[in-house]
């Protein structure tokens, strides 16, 4: 298998954005190992296309689009998974958030709704920017956001009622 040397500009991009991309993938998936896999795959694909990608204004949009697509289509990817006898590298992901109930409710959302919330409120993207990352219409982003927020409100109300508040 031929060896590939990362261009200095790509290596710098990875150093500057790796932790941020891991957090993004973790918020989507709720799983540290899956987040690391999503980021690794996205960076591998980005590295191979770096000459073209770096000419765009926002390489981050390209990388996030890969992460989102891989996350939303992971069942297909699992069918192609290859087992290995090597132990994976250990990654650092921030510890569990303090508001455990909210995070449980977020993790319980359907993947598309959770993805929209992460893009809109974690990455602070506009509806149009989130639609571009997802490859869907602005209306789809709006409806998924509305449904997700309503489910979170309902979940928080149920939790508060169970706690006697």
Features:
mainly alpha, 165 residues, single chain
Structure description:
- The protein has nine helices and no strands.
- The radius of gyration is 18 Å and the shape is globular.
- It has helices at 8-29, 32-48, 50-53, 59-72, 74-79, 100-108, 111-122, 127-134, 138-162.
- It is mainly α.
State the low-pLDDT regions, or none.
Answer: none
| Average pLDDT rating | 85
- Number-wise, the strands total 0
Kindly state the percentage of residues in helix: over 70%
Major sheet attributes = none
Overall outline: globular
Strand content: under 5%
Q: H/E order of the elements?
A: HHHHHHHHH
SSE-based structural type = mainly alpha
Topology:
Elements: H1 8-29, H2 32-48, H3 50-53, H4 59-72, H5 74-79, H6 100-108, H7 111-122, H8 127-134, H9 138-162
Can you summarize this structure?
This protein is mainly α. The protein has nine helices and no strands.
């Amino acid at each position: 298998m031929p060896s590939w040397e990362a261009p200095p500009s790509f290596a710098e991009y990875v150093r500057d954005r790796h932790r941020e991309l891991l957090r993004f993938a973790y918020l989507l998936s709720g799983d540290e190992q899956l987040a690391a896999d999503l980021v690794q795959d996205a960076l591998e694909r980005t590295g191979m296309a770096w000459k073209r990608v770096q000419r765009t204004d926002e390489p981050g949009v390209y990388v996030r689009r890969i992460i989102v697509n891989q996350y939303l289509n992971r069942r297909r990817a699992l069918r192609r998974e290859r087992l290995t006898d090597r132990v994976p590298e250990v990654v650092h992901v921030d510890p569990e958030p303090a508001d455990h109930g909210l995070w449980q409710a977020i993790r319980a959302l359907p993947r598309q709704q959770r993805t929209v919330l992460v893009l809109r409120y974690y990455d602070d993207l506009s509806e149009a920017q989130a639609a571009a990352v997802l490859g869907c219409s602005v209306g789809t982003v709006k409806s998924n956001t509305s449904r997700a927020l309503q489910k979170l409100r309902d979940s928080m109300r149920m939790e508060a009622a169970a706690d006697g508040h």
